[in-house]
Design a protein that fits this description.
The structure holds two protein chains of two kinds.
Chain A: H1 2-12, H2 18-24, H3 29-58, E1 62-63, E2 66-67, H4 71-109, H5 126-157, H6 159-172, H7 177-191, H8 202-228, H9 232-240, H10 245-283, H11 288-298, H12 303-332
Antiparallel strand pairs in A: 1-2
Helix pairs in contact in A: 2-3, 4-12, 5-6, 5-8, 5-10, 5-11, 7-8, 7-10, 8-10, 10-11, 10-12, 11-12
Chain B: H1 6-29, E1 35-40, H2 47-54, H3 57-60, E2 64-69, H4 73-82, E3 87-91, H5 94-100, E4 108-117, E5 119-124, H6 125-131, E6 137-138, E7 141-142, H7 152-160, E8 165-169, H8 175-186, E9 193-195, E10 199-204, E11 208-212, H9 218-224, E12 229-233, H10 238-243, E13 246-251, H11 252-255, E14 260-267, H12 268-273, H13 275-297, H14 300-307, H15 317-324, E15 327-329, E16 335-337, E17 342-343, H16 354-366, H17 376-386, H18 389-401, H19 434-439, E18 450-452, E19 455-457
Helix pairs in contact in B: 2-13, 13-18, 14-15, 16-17
The chains are: A mainly alpha, B alpha+beta.
Chain lengths: ~350, ~450
């Protein structure tokens, strides 16, 4: 039981809990406490030191929006944002009520009136922006993965294909999202025609595709490396057994390359998250990036603390995304860690 | 067919006519599109949009509107043209610029002026210190309005040292650009010419170099020292006072009394496709404008509360209140009454008049954005294509019929006003004679003059 738990916590990266389980299982408590001190105590103290340093130095820097907010001000701002979220929800409920009343009136006047219920037109709250950003980054990431893995496998299996694609990869890999954005925006606006019932907003597509273009490369390169470094013996066995190429990919290449692919995807998701915020800021597309930009432009006395809340949110979400990918990677690594 | 009894025939005719009238009415009221998305820039003069949304005027007209802040005026124009936005808060000359093809070519129309005045010209503390000794004083107080004459020696000093004198505005075909140029030129400082399509930076033969900065970034850019001054709408001048980084020297109300500032623009195609929706939008906006100016600005405090929300302007209430309640703080502590600093309805502030369109066209011609001679008739024709008081008046008529507005508050006809000289340099403007008007300015293109290869040629 305890071994299973330890394995689980190791997989998910929640190593803080392992010493407690070991103590519970009756192992030497002194050693476990030392262990706990190392993996939990030290980082906590470091973080407290960081907060202290921040709080001390923040009050020393005066910007045109007032002093830089310290940890307390930022913490209070979180409360303000949550309150704003609930206030907006109340306004939303009132909006739906008014709309319903209006639709009922229209139907009473004319039963054939094509009434429709439309989404709330008010502003998205901070929490809404977080979910918008998460949705966008996943869409971009999934498209990137779907494109990069097959291409990566092709590159890994065929040296000719690899040499053909290599220059393109090298050129496009370092391109910043800010350079892709205008191109993507122009292409999406001219190719994608929206109507009232369109599934996606143009801005959503622009952000997602920009994320795709920037987060494609780590998965692609890692997949190619993973596939090309599959043990030659395994490939030879496949040849002896005369497996057709599809079975070969499924039974031999993919399982051995999987740890590499996951490393690539983990890197890709990290890049994607970073790129997304920049893309949202520049293109004013909904999400956390727009929140930051709007607050920068507002220039109110709360703006700086709000931006800092966003910075921490972006960091924590990025960290969690990475942890999730890391856990997946460990699951698929069959015991090897890379 | 037998002979129909006259009586029945008459009744039939009556019934038929009643039927057609009622179907006509239904057709007139039918909205082609109910879900709309409008853009705006974080400036207090976007207030009619925020008020129409928050006070439910859009919903009263059956419209479900989403308002979305935009990054800069270029994005606004692009998104309206691409259809991502149904319409937007725009600089008054922007639809004119688009229709004649300066920068982006597109047919954009406006049937609603979003208000008069609301801008100021701000210089950095350092420039103000150098300028202040040149400003004439009476009774220990500076004589306002301050003319660019006071800035001229400063610019000359920079010029003699070989340093460029940088200032910022918000968009080439924008009211801030043209007003800043007007003020500079009235004080003898050359703001530079355009030579489209080769040169659209507008710095040919310039003593003050004007560049583009989005409104909310003005204070930060001034603070960074990249520019020495700017012309922008509120709250970004009062923000500079609050932050202690700059001093507004003149408001646009003093530059030209009741100057048209922003408009609500849509594409010509949109207006043609959704005429009823368009009229409904204008109705809601007119009501918002009335609400904003009602009873001696009694609603302004509530308006400030609306505007201070993060999704609209988002600046602190006291910064917004400074200009929205009819006062203006020049230097810190020097707060003076300027009752008409932001007007939305009174004095026909919401009426899209041809005069304002023609004035902006003359200024675009003056600085070479329109780089060849145009006959007087061309100015009015262009204004008529872009500014649509007919739609405004149709909307006003419906509001009057519904008892939501008073007939006396609207101008009756769409003609031009007589010549007026409410300008800082007292040059009289007659919208019927644009070329004569241009000839009166010592600085600027006139007659058949043209910029060719960076030089003025006859």
């Amino acid at each position: 039981m305890s071994n299973k738990l330890i394995h689980f916590f190791n997989l998910t990266g929640l190593t803080w809990f392992i010493p407690f389980i070991k103590i519970a299982a009756g192992e030497n408590p002194a050693r476990q406490v030392r262990e706990l001190w190392l993996i939990a105590g030290v980082p906590i103290i470091a973080f407290i030191l960081f907060l202290g340093l921040w709080s001390f130095s923040a009050s020393k820097v005066n910007t045109s929006l007032g002093a830089i907010p310290g940890p307390v001000a930022v913490w209070q701002e979180i409360g303000g944002l949550v309150k704003a979220h609930y206030a907006e929800r109340q306004k939303e409920a009132a909006f739906y009520q008014r709309q319903q009343a209006r639709n009922e009136k229209l139907l009473a006047e004319n039963p054939d009136e094509p009434v429709k219920t439309r989404a709330y037109t008010g502003k998205p709250t901070y929490l809404d922006q977080i979910f918008t950003s998460l949705g966008t980054v996943f869409t971009g990431f999934v498209i990137a993965t779907l494109a990069a893995i097959p291409l990566g496998i092709l590159c890994g299996m065929s040296p000719v294909f690899n040499t053909a694609l290599n220059p393109l990869i090298q050129i496009f890999k370092p391109v910043s999202p800010l350079a892709w954005l205008p191109i993507v925006t122009l292409i999406v606006s001219s190719v994608y025609v929206t109507t009232d019932d369109s599934w996606f907003e143009k801005s959503f597509l622009t952000s997602a595709i920009t994320v795709t273009l920037c987060s494609l490369w780590p998965t692609l390169i890692n997949t190619a490396v993973g596939v090309s470094s599959v043990d030659q013996d395994l490939i030879n066995v496949g040849k002896v057994l005369r497996l057709d190429w599809r079975t070969q990919i499924r039974k031999i290449i993919l399982p051995s390359a999987l740890p590499y692919i996951f490393t690539g995807m983990r890197l890709s998701l990290g890049v994607g998250w970073m790129v997304l915020i920049a893309a949202e800021m520049l293109a004013q597309n909904p999400g956390l990036g727009k929140f930051v930009w709007d607050e920068f432009q507002n220039g109110s006395s709360n703006s700086l603390s709000r931006i800092m809340v966003a910075v921490f949110t972006i960091g924590i979400i990025g960290f969690m995304l990475d942890r999730i990918m890391q856990s997946l990677q460990k699951v698929f690594s069959f015991g090897q860690t890379r | 067919m037998k002979i129909i009894n006259m009586f029945t025939a008459k009744k039939l005719w009556l019934a038929a006519s009643v039927l057609t009238i009622s179907t006509n009415l239904a057709a007139a009221g039918k909205l082609e599109k109910e879900d709309l998305k409008f853009g705006f820039i974080k400036l207090t003069d976007m207030a009619p949009l925020a008020v129409a949304y928050e006070k439910g005027f859009f919903e009263d007209e059956g419209l479900y509107v989403q308002l979305e802040a935009q990054a800069n005026w270029k994005v606004v124009l692009d998104r309206v043209i691409s259809g991502e936005l149904d319409g937007s808060h725009m600089l008054a000359p922007a639809p004119l610029g688009a229709s004649i093809g300066f920068g982006t070519k597109a047919d954009i129309v406006t049937a609603f002026s979003m208000g008069f005045n609301g801008n100021a010209i701000t210089v950095s503390n350092d420039i103000w210190k150098q300028m202040k000794p040149n400003v004439p004083v009476a009774d220990g107080k500076l004589i306002r309005p301050i003319k660019a004459d006071a800035l001229k020696p400063v610019v000359d000093k920079y010029k003699s040292q070989g340093k460029p004198f940088n200032m910022a505005m918000t968009f080439p075909v924008g009211s801030h650009n043209l007003k800043l140029r007007y003020w500079l030129a009235a004080g003898g400082i050359k703001p530079g010419y355009y030579e489209p399509p080769q040169d659209i930076s507008g710095q040919i033969d310039a003593e003050a170099m004007l560049s583009v900065t989005p409104p909310p970034q003005m204070p930060a850019t001034l603070e960074a020292g990249t520019i020495y001054g700017y012309c922008v709408g509120e709250p970004w001048n009062q923000q500079a006072v609050f932050k202690g980084i700059g001093v507004p020297v003149i408001t646009d109300e003093e530059l030209w009394k009741n100057t048209p500032e922003k408009v609500f623009g849509v594409t010509q195609a949109w207006a043609d496709k959704y005429p009823n929706t368009h009229k409904a939008v204008i109705k809601a906006l007119i009501r918002a404008a009335i609400w904003l100016d009602e009873d001696n600005n009694k609603n302004r405090q509530e308006a400030i509360k609306i505007l201070s929300q993060t999704q609209y302007v988002g600046a602190d209430k006291e910064v917004l209140a400074n200009s929205m309640t009819g006062t203006f703080e020049y230097e810190k502590g020097d707060k003076r009454p300027l009752p008409d600093f932001n007007t939305f309805f009174r004095n026909s502030a919401s009426y899209p008049s041809y005069d304002s369109a023609v004035w902006y066209l003359t200024q675009m011609r003056r600085w070479g954005q329109i780089n060849e001679y145009k006959p007087d008739s061309w100015y009015l024709e262009t204004a008529r294509k872009v500014y649509r008081p007919d739609i405004y008046l149709a909307a006003a008529k419906e509001l009057i019929a519904e008892g939501k507005a008073k007939a006396g508050d609207f101008p009756a006809d769409t003609g031009l006003k007589p010549a007026q000289d409410f300008f800082i340099d007292k040059v009289a403007f007659d919208a019927g004679k644009p070329n004569d008007y241009l000839a009166k300015f010592p600085i600027g293109l006139k007659g058949k003059q043209k910029i060719v290869g960076g030089k003025i040629t006859e």
